[in-house]
Amino acid sequence: MQKQSAYTRELFAITEALAKFRHYLLGHKFVIKSDQKSLKSLLDQSLQTPEQQAWNVQEVNDYSVKDGLLYWKDWLVLPSQSQLIQTVLKENHSSPIGGHAGVTRTIARTTA
Question: Which of 10, 73, 85, 95 counts the highest number of beta carbons within 10 A?
């Protein structure tokens, strides 16, 4: 990666950060700030580089809609304000298969 252009390295850093913190970002508006001029208008650009094309295809392929529900890599995506979140957490914590593993383990088991 060190031999790549600054554009490619910063695009990689952005996509890795989005992937890592995805569960915090879903359902929220956020701003990505960069001093790389070519990345500042990323959404307005046509896909020119192989890295841009691969990133675009990966985002699209990871998401699917089944029975009107949004999934990311076969995980159900719930908006952060959804009342279903409490139901899912309760079922995974209090049910016989949940095992009363505690808050941290329950959340880890129910989020990607």
Answer: 10
